[in-house]
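User: My notes are a mess, but here's the protein and nicotinamide-adenine-dinucleotide's SMILES. Can you give me a structure?
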Amino acid sequence: MASKGRVEGKVVLVTGAAHGLGWADAQALAREGAQVILADVDEEEARRLADTLPGAMALRLDVTCEVQWQGALAKIMQVHGRLDALVNNAGIAAFETVEQSSLESFRRVMSVSAEGTFLGCKICLPALAASGAGSIVNIASAAAIRGNPTVFAYSAAKGAVLSMTRSVIVHCQQQGYPVRANVVLPGSHDTQMVRDAYRFAPPELREAAQRHEGQPEHVADLVLFLVSDESARLNGAEIVIDNGRTVA
Ligand SMILES: NC(=O)c1ccc[n+]([C@@H]2O[C@H](COP(=O)([O-])OP(=O)(O)OC[C@H]3O[C@@H](n4cnc5c(N)ncnc54)[C@H](O)[C@@H]3O)[C@@H](O)[C@H]2O)c1
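Assistant: No problem, the inputs look usable. Here's the predicted complex:
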């Protein structure tokens, strides 16, 4: 008899799943038996990739749009009738210091990482609570806790993800919702976002990041653990995954 996967039968929504870390998360979760919903603004690629995973489906979702979140959740409930976990992964960066950042680009970065995470938590909470053991995994960044001058708005948005998560946890406890939430703070992992960042980073920052760089699968292993019941007692953890760079 085949052994059960680590997240067998769980219905998991991953945002920003058409590329990079989100795609690695989707693959790891599907490999361990989850029914994964790949949600992305790049709907074509999300569909192409979902077709390669057992039990997966794709949705167009711009995480900054409340109406699209409502539509996405309605579709998931129609198809699966439940939602067990939400991975708020979608994010964008602008490679600008505080002085270079315009109000417009600051708002654009905040809208995807901070507002997108807010909307995901708000809209999915009732369904996650109804699952009986919901798990939220919010993807922040090591940039949220390090002074990184070249990604000013991005650092601010990821800091907001940390504080939002704490607030969501206490709200769930007060409401008696069986939902836990944890935050992943990755350092550099090889994706398009990081390749773009290297073009703007000063050489010493780029070299330090490259020395500690990981692969998307390393983050996906952690996300898998946080979605799975193996981490049932973890609630409010803020886990830096950067091969020791932050403490060096
Ligand atoms: N790669 C790293 O080293 C690293 C480090 C720290 C944090 N992160 C975080 O991990 C997450 C994924 O990053 P990545 O490196 O895979 O980036 P990426 O650019 O490779 O992929 C981002 C994905 O998000 C999607 N996306 C962008 N805007 C969206 C929106 N409004 N709605 C829905 N989807 C949207 C893109 O289409 C893409 O599929 C981000 O939140 C990022 O900040 C990444």
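The chain has a mean pLDDT of 96.
User: Great, I'll file this with my notes.
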